[in-house]
Amino acid sequence: MLTISQLAAYAGVTVRAVRHYHQIGLLPEPERDRSGYRSYDAAAVVRLIRIRTLADAGVPLARVQELLDAGPEELADGVQAIDKDLRTEIRRLQDTRKRLARLAAGEQPALPRSVVGYLDRLRGLGVEERYIEMERDAWIMVAAQVPHLIDFVIAKKHEQLDDPDMVKLYSFFRGALDWPADDPRVVEIADIVERLRMRAVEAGEAGADGFDDQFVDLLDSAMVESSPGAERLVAILAERGWKGWTRIERVPADRLDTDLPP
Questions:
Q1: Number of Cα atoms under 13 Å in the Cβ half of residue 84
Q2: CB 179: neighbour CB atoms within 10 A?
Q3: What's the first-to-final CA gap in the chain, in angstroms?
Q4: Which partner for 21 in 26, 50, 53, 227 could form a disulfide, CB atoms 3.0-4.6 Å apart?
């Protein structure tokens, strides 16, 4: 008969591991001798070696029990299931490493790569960094709401940047956040935005797909609060029958008086 130290040595594990296997039920507690010490037989050595072999092969301890006494077919099925789980975990870890590498390279956290590319394109148009930071924060919220749609949405934004009116609109965003509400350029921006909205409506594009009203209001308020000129821009568009900012809505003429703020 063997002591716990001898058992551990024969099986190639530590005494601490043996005690842990006792605790979680993988290795049954043996009878104790007259002195109160655990006494192990050859069957315990074999079982412990099998436990160690499965654990060393990557089988989680929580699943070792079901495989210890399994027949060949059950063992093969169990190992295949574990291998599938491991491959899933490997892919998850590889994705994590890629995200960490992008962060180490200076990429903004919480921003999909497609958004980063779009913001870089805006920089290429000369848009000031303060405005880009405002767009960045909005895109962070949007990407969190519709992660499955964000790449499609950004692809549409790139298409819009092929429109001369859209390029002209962004050309104003050099110091625009500091404009007073009565700056005449605000009216020019309103003219451009209205043309863009009319074309969007004709194309059946309302924007803000998948967003609830509360989230749309949140994005609108962030835009309106960005500068005095932004608040006036929204007011001018409202006077012309356009409601909101994020979601494109044309207000019928017979509702303008009731929908406009006092």
A1: 6
A2: 19
A3: 94
A4: 26
Mean pLDDT of 239-250: 86
Question: Do 47 and 65 form a contact (C-beta atoms < 8 A)?
Answer: no
Q: What pLDDT shows up at residue 11? A: 92
Instruction: List b or e across 36-66, with b for residues whose CB sees 16 or more CB atoms inside 10 angstroms.
Output: eebbbeeebbebbebbbebbeeebeeeebee
Joined tokens for residue 204: 């059946």
Q: What percent of the chain is helix, strand and coil (3-state, nearest 5)? A: 65, 5, 30
For residues 70 and 79, is the Cβ–Cβ distance under 8 A? Answer: no
Confidence of residue 209 (pLDDT cuts 50, 70, 90): low
Place of tokens 């940047």: 161
Listed in sequence order, the residues at least 6 apart from 245 whose beta carbon sits closer than 8 Å to its beta carbon are: 219, 220, 223, 224, 234, 237
Report which of 156, 168, 173, 259 is spatially closest to residue 223, judged by C-alpha positions: 173
Q: Which domains does the chain have, with CATH numbers?
A: 4-102 (1.10.1660.10), 113-259 (no CATH)
For helices 185-202 and 228-239, give the axis angle rounded to 10 degrees. 50
